[in-house]
Specification:
Elements lengths: L3 H8 L12 E5 L2 E4 L4 E4 L2 H4 L8 H13 L12 H12 L7 E5 L2 H16 L3 E5 L8 H5 L17 E4 L14 E6 L15 H12 L2 E5 L13 H5 L5 E4 L10 E5 L1 H5 L17 H16 L6 H11 L5 E7 L2 E6 L2 H13 L2 E2 L1 E2 L6 E4 L7 H16 L1
Parallel strand pairs: 3-13, 5-6, 5-7, 7-8, 8-9
Antiparallel strand pairs: 1-2, 2-3, 4-10, 9-10, 11-12, 12-15, 14-15
The chain binds pyridoxal-5'-phosphate.
Length: about 400
């Protein structure tokens, strides 16, 4: 007998021994539906990748319209394709002058890889500094700067000259020196459970980069496109990077990423050697059309303005003796519990009750909340009630 779960487990490579195996039938707005018609309120949004919810008609229409015109026609950077240049222009219009030029990729990891290469090329230096506890992707360059040895040990040797600072530790900034090509940092550290910067930490990193002639790379793969209530996270903290990496929400559910910098820096990838970074599918026109529709919709609506109020709603409804603290900012929240077992229980039992929650990569005592930015107040209250009821069980 045909059993989708067995095929999924036996023929689709797995990343984890106990996947939830939810069998998806459809998704709309803040809900995902399984093959039995059960609805699940989605507090995760594809791990922050669906800012406008599921099957948003503006995005779907843009995708369909582009598909009917043309899909893939040529490798990145050869032909003038309107979804690409219109998206690059709208990004530039909403970014500071030094972030005028976009290189489109297919994923966030590839944006990080491109940014690391660009920093080495621009500075003539090789050391990349990142933070303990950071996650920037799983390919070998991104893995080299990952801040968790457990996930790296089996894959060594990795890139040399990758060193660390500690997020929010000003003392550790001595590790940024004249040898440093770039510092890669997330405005809110994701994998350790949404740690926010304190005491102007990002500005201090910026100052140290200026002092040492190092480039500052912001990994905004999780924070971009409104998650903190501003289009990009750096706006919230008033610190401008030299290279900005974005992905996830940028595609409105479609796979696209980008690294963005000044025209002068980006131009370095065009000579000695030319084709300094190439990709076949980066900036796929259909994905650019989806991204452009997402960006236009975000800019023309009140969605970003409502993020802070929605954050407050989460915080005020998630009060329980078993909740130690709530970290994070905007619609990027981490609920911290006493122990790992409780996290597992809440995630699993909430799923049974029709609420999707998820784990963090490195922190086991917290669970993540990163719903679509379009989530309604009623949906927030409904989901919080499920969490509280689960804690009472
Ligand atoms: N950087 C951060 C902060 C991320 O959260 C992720 C993905 O979770 C990545 C990089 C890698 O992005 P992608 O999975 O699109 O390659």
């Amino acid at each position: 007998m045909f059993n989708a779960r067995d095929i999924f487990k036996n023929h689709q490579a797995q990343t984890f021994p106990f996947p939830s195996c939810l069998e998806i039938s459809s998704a709309k707005g803040s809900y995902i539906y399984d093959i039995n018609g059960k609805e699940y309120l989605d507090f995760i949004a594809g791990v922050s990748a669906c800012p406008l919810g599921h099957c948003n008609p503006h995005i779907n229409d843009a995708i369909k319209e582009q598909l009917d015109k043309y899909s893939h026609v040529m490798v990145y950077g050869e032909y003038v394709q309107s979804p690409q240049y219109k998206l690059a222009k709208l990004l530039a219009d909403n970014l500071p002058q030094n972030l005028s030029t976009t290189y489109f990729t297919s994923t966030g990891t590839e944006a990080i890889e491109g940014a690391m290469k660009l920093a080495k090329r621009a500075t003539g230096k090789s050391e990349i500094i990142s933070c303990k506890g950071s996650y920037h992707g799983s390919t070998q360059g991104a893995l080299s700067i990952m801040g968790n040895e457990e996930y790296k040990a089996m894959y060594r040797p990795l890139l040399p000259s990758c060193n660390k600072i500690i997020y929010n530790s000003v003392d550790s900034l001595v590790n940024i020196t004249n040898k440093t090509a770039a510092v890669v940092i997330e405005p809110i550290q994701g994998a350790t459970g949404f740690i926010s910067p304190s005491n102007n930490f990002l500005q201090k990193v910026r100052d140290k980069c200026n002092e040492t002639g190092s480039l500052l790379i912001f990994d905004e793969i999780q924070t971009c496109f409104g998650r903190l209530g501003t289009l990009f996270g750096f706006e919230k903290f008033n610190v401008i990077p030299d290279i900005l990496c974005i992905a996830k929400a940028m595609g409105g559910g479609m796979p696209i990423g980008a690294f963005i910098s000044s025209w002068d820096l980006m131009n370095l990838l065009t000579f000695e050697p030319k084709l300094g970074h190439i990709t076949t599918f980066g900036g796929h026109p259909v994905n650019c059309a989806a991204s452009l529709a997402t960006l236009k919709f975000l800019l023309s609506s009140d969605i970003m303005k409502e993020v802070v109020r929605k954050e407050q709603l989460f915080r005020s409804h998630l009060k329980h003796p078993k909740i130690k603290t709530i970290r994070g900012s905007g619609l990027m929240l981490a609920i911290e519990f006493e122990d790992e077992e409780l996290v597992k229980k809440v995630v699993e039992q909430s799923l049974e009750s029709g609420l999707i929650l998820f784990y963090f990569l490195f922190t086991k005592t917290a669970l993540r909340i990163s719903p679509p930015l379009t989530i309604s107040e009623e949906e927030i209250i409904k989901g919080c009630k499920i969490i509280l009821e689960t804690l009472e069980k």
